# Entry
Amino acid sequence: MRGEEWRGEGTVLVVDDEDMVRRVLRLSVERLGFDVVEAEDGERALQVFREHRRDLRAVILDRTLPGASGTQIMDELRQVDGSIPIVLTSGYTDDGSNADAFLAKPFRPTEVATLLEKLLEGAG
# Structure
């Protein structure tokens, strides 16, 4: 499978309010060669995004977060830097948001790899 062999570089921001989901995403993304920074809510996501913006290759963002929806946070992230691809995750179906990609929960690490490869290699 192509996604299992692919390696990336740079940093990925993982945003999810569930510790276990963040842990699984961290391990999946680190296995691909990326560094990972994390946030558990929208406010922290914006702060981490601003701090690491120059190194970020992608953001993996939960659609449902405490205090603000993932789509609201996505819009705010794009105001800071619209060039970084954003993957929206959810246990519900894709809502047609303007995310660059959608990852349905539950997911397998190979799905994360395949999605990031397609998204980042397609982005240049």
The chain has one domain: 2-116.
